[in-house]
Design a protein that fits this description.
- It is a single chain.
- The protein has 2 helices and 20 strands.
- It is mostly beta strands.
- The chain has a single domain, classed as Outer membrane protein transport protein (OMPP1/FadL/TodX) (Porin, Beta Barrel).
- The longest helix has 16 residues.
């Protein structure tokens, strides 16, 4: 069964890698783009909470969870998002399909496991038009376009040194290229100016986690979690090229490569502040669970000196999320729907991004289904999120979205000695 679905897994990832941009949000114009969730489909369906660990699923955000793995697990996903973008006067509908993650988790001892894989970390993908007037009353047109993003390769290890207490750590290497392009033109003038800025970024960060899961009354489990995503220290190698060109033919007339070294901008540092997460939940194993998490980040210290938009600022960020699941009877043989995992959640994110003095916050309602594959523990996870981000005040854009993600979680056994009778 697993071998058959590995073919589907390869096709899934091939489609995701060749799909559209990682985002089409106008808010990816700021910072280093939109931060991706970095959670599996199972996490995302439960409001994005990360504290839950089990024996058959990879948890990308909680390395302590690898200590619970009993089977080798391959996991991957893609997502499709329908956007409705609106300002005070206009409305536009767009869509986007993205690769979400590819990872493997495997047990290496009775109470230890490891994991590794590839996930997107941030994405840039926007097209914006802004018009203004100069002192002579002529219309100045600015076209902004951005592309690129950062990917993350990771290696995680989880270990349970004493019963019910699990520890974990992850090392992440982040890398990618960000491109910011601005074309400025004047009404009824045949020539324009183009400013292209490119950043080649890489750097490390770490994630540490602690799970404590004592049993209560021999039936229920209390789930508690502390997670720390350390400061992401990135080095950015920058370049900038300014050119004049014909608006009718696109032919470049004159171009200059800016000496960024003279401005101390050829190499800059990007420091994304530490995120601390606290979670608490309660449930009956393989039956039901409810939980909540709170995260906070001192994002007010973040800055991107190379891009340096004037209308943007940062404040401290926070997030609160709730999640639940229910399985009627995971051992049922007389009804498929009894073995389905039903998940739901909600989240509210104060992103810390301030544009034109307005906070850009996000609210989402999530739900979905874990669909068993055959008689083993593999499953397809189908998730949905309805959400809204931003505001139409101060000339800004409000995003309403429907996200659909499809994830595969395939289980196998490694390191088993074969016996011949």
């Amino acid at each position: 069964m697993v071998k058959k679905f590995l073919i589907a897994l390869i096709c899934l990832i091939s489609f995701g890698i060749n799909a559209q941009k990682g985002t089409i949000s106008p808010y990816s114009f700021f910072g280093i783009g939109d931060f991706r969730s970095n959670g599996t489909a199972e996490n995302q369906m439960m409001g994005g909470i990360q504290l839950l660990a089990d024996s058959i699923h990879v948890n990308l955000r909680n390395p302590a969870a690898y200590s619970k793995l009993k089977l080798t697990t391959y996991t991957a996903a893609i997502a499709h998002t329908e956007f409705r973008l609106e300002d005070a006067t206009e409305l536009q509908r767009v869509s986007n399909t993205t690769f979400e993650y590819l990872a493997i988790g495997l047990p290496i001892a009775r109470n230890a496991g490891i994991g590794f894989g590839l996930v997107p970390f941030s994405s840039v993908g926007y097209r914006l038009l802004a018009e203004d007037q100069n002192a002579q009353g002529e219309t100045i047109i600015n076209n902004f376009e951005g592309d690129g993003g950062l990917n993350r390769v990771f290696f995680s290890v989880g270990y349970e040194p004493i019963k019910n207490l699990s520890l974990g750590a992850t090392v992440n290497f982040n890398f990618g290229t960000l491109t910011f392009d601005r074309i400025q033109s004047l009404e009824n003038v045949l020539f324009g100016t183009r400013d292209i800025r490119e950043s080649r970024v890489n750097g490390f960060d770490f994630n540490y986690a602690l799970n404590y899961t004592p049993t209560i009354n021999k039936k229920y489990t209390l789930h508690s979690h502390i997670g720390v995503d350390t400061q992401v220290n990135l080095v950015s190698q920058n370049s900038e090229r300014i050119s004049s060109f014909s608006l009718t033919t696109g032919a470049e007339i004159e171009a200059v490569d800016i000496n960024l070294g003279a401005q101390n901008l050829a190499n800059t540092e990007l420091k994304i502040p530490t995120v601390a997460t606290f979670g608490l939940g309660f449930g009956e194993n393989k039956k039901w669970f409810v939980g909540a998490e709170y995260s906070l980040q001192a994002l007010s210290s973040f800055a991107n000196d190379f891009i340096g938009q004037e209308n943007v600022g940062y404040d401290d960020a926070s997030s609160i999320a709730f999640g639940t699941y229910f399985i009627p009877d995971y051992r049922a043989i007389d009804g498929y729907l009894k073995r389905v995992t039903y998940r739901a959640g909600l989240r509210y994110d104060q992103t810390g991004l301030l544009v034109n003095g307005k906070e850009i916050n996000n609210f989402g309602i999530t739900f979905g289904f874990g669909l068993p594959l055959g008689a083993n523990f593999s499953n397809v996870n189908l998730g949905f999120e309805l959400g809204r981000r931003g505001t139409t005040d101060q000339g800004l854009i409000r995003e309403s979205y429907l996200l659909v993600n499809v994830g595969l979680s395939l289980n196998d056994k490694w390191f088993i000695k074969r016996k011949i009778n």
